[in-house]
Amino acid sequence: MSATLLSVADLHISFGGVRVLQGVNLTVDRLEIRGLIGPNGAGKTTLLNAICGMYRPQQGSIQLDGVSVIGHKPSDIAQLGLGRTFQTSQLFKGMTVLENLMTGLHRQTVTGFLSAGFCLRRGRDEEMRTEEEARRALHFVGMSEFADRPATALSFGQQRVVEIARTLIGDPKIVLLDEPAVGLSINRLAELDALLRRIRDQKGVTLILIEHVIRLVMDVCDRVTVLSSGRVIADGAPDSVRNDQAVIEAYLGKELRARHSAS
Amino acid sequence: MLLFSYLLMSGVTTGALYALVALGIVVVNKATGVINFAQGEFFMFTGFVGWMLHVQFGMNYPLSFLLAVAVGFVLGMLTDRIAFRPIAKSDIVSLVLATVGIGFILKGLARVIWGGKADYLSFPPITSPDPIMVGPVMVIPQQLAVLAGTVIIMLVFAAFFRLTRAGKMMQATADNSRAALLVGIRTDRIYTLAFGTGAAIAAAAAVLTAPLTLLYPDIGFAFFLKGFAAAVLGGLTSLPGAVLGGLIVGVAESLAGGYIHSSVMELSPFLVIMVVLVLRPSGLLSFRKARRI
Amino acid sequence: MPFGRRNVLLALLAIGVIVPAFANGYQLFVCNLVAIYILLAIGLNILVGYAGQLAFANAAMFGIGAYATGLLQVHLGWPFWAAFPSGGLIAAAVGTLLALPALRMSGLYLALSTLAFAQATQWVFLHWENVTFGAGGFKTPPLSFAPLPVDKPVGLYYLSLVLVVLLYFFGRHVVTSRIGRAFVAVRDSEVAAESLGIDLLRYKALAFGISGFYAGVAGGLYSALLNFVAPEGYDLFQMIIQKSTIVVGGLGSIAGSVIGASIIILVLELLREVKGMQEIAFGALLVGFVLFMRGGLITVLRRYVRGWEEPLRMTPRDPTGALPQSEARPSAADK
Question: Is the ipTM, as predicted for this complex, more than 0.90?
Answer without folding.
Answer: no
